[in-house]
Amino acid sequence: MTIDIVIPVLNEERYLRRCLESVLSFEKPPGLNWRIYILDGGSQDRTWEIALEFAARNPEVEVLANPGRIQSCGLNVAIKRGQGDYVLRLDAHAFYPSNYLVLCLETSVRTQADNAGGVIITHPGGNSYGARLVQAITTHQFGVGNAGYRLDALEGPADTVPFGFFKKDVFRRLGYFDERLVRDQDYELNRRIRASGGTIWLNPAIKVHYHNQSTLKAFLKKQFFKEGPYNAYLWYLAPYAVSARHGITGAFALGVCGGAMLSWLTPFISIPFAIVLALYLMMGFVAGVQQALRFSEWRHVLAVPTGLFLFHICHGLGFLSGVICLLFGTAPVQRIKEPWPGAGRFRAWPFTEAEVPLTMIQPKFYSGHIKRWFDCALSLVGLFLVAVPMVAVAICIHIVDGSPVLFRQERIGRHGRSFTIFKYRTMTQSRVAGSTITVAGDARVTALGKWLRRFKLDELPQLFNVLKGEMSFVGPRPDVSGYMDRLNGEAVRLLELRPGITGPASLAFRNEDVLLAQAADPVEFNDRVLFPEKVRLNLEYMKRISFVSDVGYILKTMLPGREAPAPHFAPRNHRA
């Protein structure tokens, strides 16, 4: 049996020597061989020299360059190069007890887990009080939430473990580390394993001694510029890796900043805000007392609550900055195109598109997490702003055309489920049976209805459909049965979207009724030409969906449209 031990490094001269000494002191059962790979990402200190020094004395140590610099790139280089049955991923910022490897192997064999690991014992990164404060912050539940591997944990399945002892087959089946993640690459892979039905096993007997940042400033800087944003990017790349502890600080930072600003406006906000903040500080004070007793450091009583507040704010603001970058398409993880939809974005997947597990095909961050909240907020605001005009339109319809005021019809919605769409009635009650298609000059449309259709006011009741979750502001227009429910191939994925009030296809065929009026057979022209083109446009929208594009479609819908249809969609056979 052979084990590949992989250690990515970058400017680790302070810790690398102790790390390698502990690794070379691992207990080695009979018949076990190992190969130690040190991947240097371009260190500017003596890391490379120290690594070469150990390689010269130990033939099982191999030093390699990591052109990608970040850990995930270096890990993938060694995993692809190695020939072992297992991969032990280590960190140079830590040192390990002599039984570490034996316990990892025993746990993996006993549990048949895809990845096995233990718990972190945190050590100060220096001799200063700031280093000890960081240690106190990262070893309390109020600081790190439900991260069991940082706290006291029982043996059993877990969502993640530090570093990890992987079966080599995991990488053949599920791919390698995501090379777009500067942080959280371990967590993403562990959650990918679980999403595919695998097991992550935590054994608290396996212990890692880890050095934290040496100063509070370095710790907070890391939270704001790396940990926070990449927690948000992780949700975009792998929604199956969503964890409340990653995003709760974003809600906290938003609440603190928003509450502080709104408190100046009204006591109805300032009083509840002050109460909530006082409760938070009280919990922080309790944590400070507990850590002061634990580490015999009485300065922790006041320093820990302050440090926890700064930690949560910096991480939360970093998370929010990551969300903003994702919404505007400027996040670094969005610069590399996904090999194919659902491929996991820039992972070296070993299987074809047809073999991608359905659990891995996930929506984008905006469409999967933000779009619905955006719809709810905008529909509530819209209903508030147009409530009076909506009542006025309803009264006009009742006076001019009689009842009913609303038109209701069954349409095909998300996941192929039918729902009732609401519109203002714009046609006579004695509708011509047989066709659901409306052409320009249709005799069924009333005089008031023509005016409502011209300014799209007949669509206003669909704000209730949006609020109910049956529709979205932007998406494919909902069709009657016989169209969206009969899609096949790639087009079937359109049913993952909520139908929209507007969208790219709606804007491209803003004057669709004119095109249909020119066709000898409007139904045949719609089925053969218009509907396939709408499907194509909606698929393009689905691939490029973003907050900015949705806002753009909404604004374009509110602007006057062109009266002339696109010439290349004009019917060949005109009516006489």
Instruction: Tally the helices.
Output: 19
Largest sheet: 9 strands, mixed
Rg of Cα set: 30 Å
Low-confidence stretches: 339-363, 561-567, 572-576
Strand content: 5-15%
The overall average pLDDT, rounded, is: 84
| Annotation, overall tally of beta strands | 13
Shape: elongated
What is the helical fraction, as a range of percent? 40-55%
Helix and strand composition category? alpha/beta
- State the end-to-end CA separation: 83 Å
Describe the model:
This protein is an alpha/beta fold and 576 residues long. The protein has a domain at 365-569. 47% of the residues lie in helices and 13% in strands. Strands 1, 2, 3, 4, 5, 6, 7, 8 and 9 form a 9-stranded mixed beta sheet that branches. The radius of gyration is 30 Å and the shape is elongated. Mean pLDDT is 84; it is low at 339-363, 561-567 and 572-576.
Can you give keywords for this protein?
576 residues, alpha/beta, nine-stranded mixed beta sheet, elongated, disordered C terminus
Q: What's the arrangement of secondary structure elements?
A:
Layout: E1 2-9, H1 16-24, E2 33-40, H2 47-57, E3 61-65, H3 71-81, E4 86-89, E5 94-95, H4 100-111, E6 115-123, H5 129-137, H6 141-144, E7 156-157, E8 165-167, H7 168-174, H8 185-195, E9 200-211, H9 216-237, H10 244-262, H11 267-295, H12 300-327, H13 365-401, E10 406-412, E11 418-424, H14 447-454, H15 462-468, E12 472-474, E13 500-502, H16 504-508, H17 512-518, H18 522-543, H19 547-558
Parallel strand pairs: 1-2, 1-4, 2-3, 6-9, 12-13
Antiparallel strand pairs: 4-8, 5-9, 6-8, 7-9, 10-11
Helix pairs in contact: 5-12, 9-12, 10-11, 10-12, 11-12, 13-15, 17-18
